[in-house]
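Sequence only, no structure available. Ideas?
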Amino acid sequence: MVYQVQGAGLGLKQELIAQLLTQQPAQISFVEVAPENWIHVGGARGKALDAVTERYPLVCHGLSLNIGGPAPLDRDLLRDIRNFLRQRQVQVYTEHLSYCGDSGQLYDLMPLPFTAEAVHYVAGRIRQVQDYLGQQIGMENVSTYAQLPGELSEIEFLNAVLTEADCGYHLDINNIFVNASNHGFDPLDYLRQIPAERLLYAHIAGHDQRADGLRIDTHGAAVLPDVWDLLAAAYTGYGIFPTLLERDFNIPPLATLMGEIDQIRRLQRHHAAAGTAHAA
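Reply:
I predicted one. Tokens follow.
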């Protein structure tokens, strides 16, 4: 499989921009932004984004598409996203397989029912988005803390949606681990069933565990060893693929995050040397 980006990426946060521009670490191969946070942004912030993306390829991971929601798709938002992607020549745009709005923005990613009806509904909306944007998008498996009634498993639902929509897949390693712990399934069994032929790139992140055992996908802590192990298992099964470190809260200095970027690269080098890399 040929990927639009390669290697190890980093989520681009305001707190990191000055450090990235000063240090320009070669270990980072691409960066990611939520387009909603940058649409219509100009001035010093816009120039800073220009400077970063002159050095690093850019991918976009959206927050507000509301692909599974009951309200009509937001055409104004889609227009702005299309313009942003075209202006910056972004070839990889992904969103969440969830809903985040009803009569208004919920500011959270809510679970979908794993039903055949929901498959058809969501896949139809993804096709509308792809037609409007003029490019394939990717959908990410999300973390959940409750499961709605449905006749499908999470991985069956995911595969059915991506197949019917004919869209890409954004693999989130941490979300698989969090959901497996919260809902009692085997993360390796899930991983063995992912639609790897549709894979665009992956996320890895940290999470918190409450006293009652519930795991919360915070993106605010270091990646845990079990999640690194799951990423290694994915590389073993499917070859190396672009993998991005998410850190949205409690953001440490860039030098600290580079330790985790280096861990991604070490795993990629190890599996490439073992002969598990996809042919370019």
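The chain has nine helices and twelve strands.
Hope that gets you unstuck.
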